[in-house]
Amino acid sequence: MLDIGWSELAVIGVVALVVIGPKELPKTLREVGKWVRSARQMAWDFQQQWEQMARDSELADVKKTIDEVRNFDLRRQVEQTIDPDGSLRTNIQDITRPVSLDGDDKAALAAPQDTPLDPLTVFPAEPRTLPEVAAAWAPPPPPPRDLPLPAAAWAPPTSA
Predict the structure, then answer these.
(1) What pTM value is reported for the model?
(2) Where exactly are the structural domains of the chain?
(3) CA 91/CA 89 separation, integer angstroms
(4) In the chain, helix, strand, coil percent, each to 5?
(5) What would the pLDDT profile of 85-95 be if each residue is shown by its tens digit?
């Protein structure tokens, strides 16, 4: 940290012993230790205050982001993206609006069916056999393979 080697430290110790004296040296070293401890404590407090300010500023940024997400209106954004001028909404409202019927139309819709369905015409009295049903639903046969091609379908290449 201060880049003091053992030889420099020994020189400082000898000078302190000569200047301060052996009797006062332990008291003086105790005082220097207290000063170093208080300096370290002040440096640690200073560092903690800086870290606290950094956390507070990060917390403020996170709070701002959360507020932005909370205030985000997804419905409005989708509506502005899909239908910015509102024409789609009005068209859908026009389509879903109930239709008003005239008097003749209402009477025609309210009248019952005149001819009931005859179950014998819908379902024949005799059930058909499986081959009859299969023949009715069979695909048409393919065309024969020996049919000649139409004249325009193929023409030999002409040499120029």
Answers:
(1) 0.35
(2) 7-75
(3) 5
(4) 60, 0, 40
(5) 888 888 888 88
